[in-house]
Amino acid sequence: MALFDIFRKKPAAQAETEAGTQTGTQAPPQPTPQESEETRQEREREEKQEREALNAGLEKTRTGIFSRLARSVAGRSKVDDEMLDELEEILITSDVGVDTTVVIIKRIEERVARDKYMNASELQSILREEIAALLEESGRNADSESDTFGISTRQSEPYVLMVVGVNGVGKTTTIGKLAAKLARAGKKVYIGAADTFRAAAIDQLQVWADRSGATMIRQQMGSDPASVAYDTLRSAVANNADVVLIDTAGRLHNKIGLMNELSKIRNVMAKVIPDAPHEVMLVLDGSTGQNAFEQAREFTAATHVNSLAITKLDGTAKGGVVIGISDRFRVPVRYIGVGEGVDDLQIFDRRTFVEALFSIEN
Ligand SMILES: Nc1nc2c(ncn2[C@@H]2O[C@H](COP(=O)(O)OP(=O)(O)OP(=O)(O)O)[C@@H](O)[C@H]2O)c(=O)[nH]1
Ligand SMILES: [Mg+2]
To answer: Does a structural domain hold residue 52?
Structure first.
């Protein structure tokens, strides 16, 4: 029961704004004038908690990059070529990726040339500014003119999100966390256990569903995943659900049969709701660094994917991979996972991410 204590109901003022979003008007990002002092304090507390979780989750990446940067800066007064070479190496070995690193270094070189003299101790803040600016320019966040944890629910039909990815990356956990966030925001959530490969997978999902209060639709182990997805959508529509989350079994992009199975699941869902699934989210394990990058490349080429979630950023020094993926891919990063707990899923915001990566608190 303790887990439920973490979930707090969304304040009424915010819920009203959400109702406005459903009819097409956009929710203002800032507090409404009606926001009470208590609501404001609660919101600020929540934001602070999220920032702290992100800071804690990125600690290894942060210290990895900065302790090396500090060593490189020590004893030098000026940003010179040698120092830029070292910075390049630090970024590449922090899994930012070669292409993005080259762009960052070029930007810093230009700045050094422009500013003539640049103190070596300023390098950290310059790096921060350049990465933030690069990510701002290089694309967009996943649609976040949303009412609920990044997801725009509609009035007429449930929003259908299908989760895909290789084995063990965190698909089921991400669905569980998401279901909890949405349920906490007052949404009716249905989960489809379309990973019928192992009985344990269905049970694992059931635990998450029960915890969050979502309804899970399941069949026997070994049954047709498309049939589970179909049942889930039928049931969700009949019961006026707001969101449907479909879990799928882990698979590699080069297993043709399994990739075709994903198409079959998608096609069957479209028979119930013509434009479902509204979102196919690829989950990537951030702690695998460049492998996550490769998976994003291969999976997006092999099947339809329109958002990304990058998990397990806690406990790894490879968090730089989020910068590279966010810079290089057309498909936006929607969520990041910073722990195994129910609250350890965050909406990916480029600016907040860069700020956390360069924060000096804790
Ligand atoms: N530290 C950490 N662990 C995570 C995170 N997300 C998931 N995990 C853990 O990763 C392991 C695998 O997660 P699952 O959700 O079962 O992964 P999956 O993709 O559903 O796996 P398959 O269904 O077997 O393909 C579990 O032990 C999770 O607790 C995260 O953000 N941080
Ligand atoms: Mg799973």
So the answer is: no
Q: What is the DSSP string of 235-298?
A: HHHHTT-SEEEEEE----TT-HHHHHHHHHHHHHHHHHSTT--SEEEEEEEGGGTHHHHHHHHH
Does 128 fall in a domain? Answer: no
Residue 233 lies in a domain: yes
Provide the residue range defining the domain that includes 189: 159-349
Residue 6 phi, psi dihedral angles, 5° rounding:
-70, -30
**Residue 95 is assigned to a structural domain of this protein:** no
What pLDDT, in 10s, does the model give residues 91-143? Answer: 998 899 999 999 999 999 998 888 876 777 788 888 888 898 888 887 666 66
Instruction: From 170, 183, 193, select the one nearest 314 (Cα to Cα).
Output: 170
Q: Write down the pTM of the prediction.
A: 0.86
What's the average model confidence in pLDDT over 332-349? 93
Average pLDDT, the chain: 85
Strands 243-248 vs 189-194: parallel, antiparallel or unpaired: parallel
Q: What is the CATH number of the domain that holds 299?
A: 3.40.50.300
Pocket of ligand 1 from Cβ distances under 6 Å: 165, 167-173, 195, 201, 250, 311-312, 314-315, 337-340, 344
Span from the CA of 339 to the centroid of ligand 1 (angstroms) = 9
Q: Which residue from 54, 162, 172, 173 has its CB within 8 A of the most atoms of ligand 1, so it is best to mutate? A: 173
Give the number of C-alpha atoms closer than 13 A to the C-alpha of residue 22, restricted to the C-beta side: 16
Backbone angles phi, psi at 307, to 5 degrees: -155, 165
The pair of structure tokens assigned to 359 is 């924060």
If one counts the domains in the chain, the total is 1
pLDDT exceeding 90 applies to what percent of the chain? 53
Q: 85-89, 134-138, 273-277 — which is least confidently predicted?
A: 134-138
**Any idea which residue has 């010179």 for tokens?**
80
CA angle 212, 214, 219 (to 5 degrees): 125
